[in-house]
Design goal:
alpha+beta, Arc Repressor Mutant, subunit A, Trna Endonuclease, Chain: A, domain 1, two-stranded antiparallel sheet, 17% strand, disordered C terminus
Length: 324
């Protein structure tokens, strides 16, 4: 039987999968989502509801059913840092019973939007990923909406002919641009960008629908690689770490990524990218076997770290395998 933490983690997973910003990928927002669905512990997702609820009733519901006590002065945090974004994302409706209710009315209420309710009722069922992909394709993600507000000094990155994103300025973003514009066309031609991190906003670009279609669930505990590319011709996911000041794909990181993307229908390829060989030299002894290394100042070359194939996925070891 699932306990309270299972429901909270599932709600966080949903919030991430729907593409809400990092600031909303937390326990508070997860509990608010459960309240809006009246999803008490032990209740299946298929029985989710959409009651009208105000901020204070949401906090009381969370206290009663999940034992989380929020101080009264937390109301504004819940309203400004969770419910506002839920409404912006189209996940919740504001005063659907009386749209002309004054903004500061103590009677203000929220309700899960009907299409979102239909989607969330499929969570934890075989239909979830297909419905999630279709929902995001139609509604988009809040990360994408917020990403339209760009600063003029951001780094432009061409992710497809005529399609451009921007990243926060800095050496790390410059290397991410090189991965997308130089590495991908050479070694994964025709690949599609799934995710690109940003030092200013971790989820700089995220095609949540594509990741969902590949049956990958991004949970709140996992740290995404800096770049994820879907090499459609071979159905591979290239998981690329951009190394300017932090570590490469070492043994620990390899295991983390393998676990995070374990459900993927696409084969997994692990790549570490460096701006130059001088930086690579500092991490040479840490790089995991059965991974690839690419250096931006020599873009036409790829360094292969052992293994039976060059640039390709490996089957995970069987549960019986025990290294000596």
């Amino acid at each position: 039987m699932k306990d309270n933490n299972d429901y909270i983690e599932a709600a966080q997973q949903i919030i991430i999968s729907l593409g809400l910003p990092r600031a909303q990928q937390n326990e508070r927002s997860a509990l608010c989502l459960l309240a809006l669905l009246n999803l008490t512990p032990g209740k299946p997702w298929t029985d989710a509801e959409n009651p009208l609820m105000g901020i204070t009733p949401i906090m009381a519901w969370v206290r009663e059913h999940y034992g989380k006590e929020y101080a009264p002065n937390t109301r504004e945090t819940v309203r400004r840092q969770t419910m506002h974004q839920f409404c912006d994302a189209g996940l919740a409706l504001y005063n659907p019973d009386k749209p002309d209710r004054p903004v500061n009315s103590p009677n203000a209420v929220y309700q899960i939007e009907p299409a979102a309710l239909a989607l969330l009722r499929t969570f934890d069922t075989p239909e979830w990923h297909d419905h999630l992909a279709a929902y995001i394709a139609e509604h988009g993600t809040l990360v994408s909406k917020y990403a339209r507000e760009r600063e003029q000094n951001r780094i432009p990155v061409e992710i497809a002919p005529g399609q451009q994103i921007t990243l926060s300025p800095g050496e790390h973003s410059e290397l991410i641009r090189a991965i997308i514009e130089d590495f991908a066309p050479r070694f994964a031609p025709g690949s599609v960008l799934v995710y690109a991190g940003d030092t200013g906003e971790k989820w700089g670009y995220f095609d949540a629908a594509l990741l969902a279609s590949l049956e990958v669930d991004v949970d709140s505990h996992g740290k995404m690689p800096d770049v994820v590319l879907h090499y459609t011709a071979k159905n591979w996911l290239l998981l690329v770490e951009s190394v300017t000041s932090h570590g490469p794909v070492d043994g620990k990181r390899h295991a983390e990524l393998a676990t995070m993307f374990a459900g993927s229908k696409a084969g997994l390829v692990y790549v570490t990218a460096f701006p130059n060989r001088a930086v690579m030299g500092r991490y040479l002894t840490e790089i995991a076997w059965e991974t690839e290394v690419w250096v931006a100042d020599a873009p036409s070359h790829l360094i292969h770290f052992d293994g039976e194939r060059f640039l390709g996925p490996y089957n995970p070891p069987s549960p019986q395998y025990c290294p000596l």
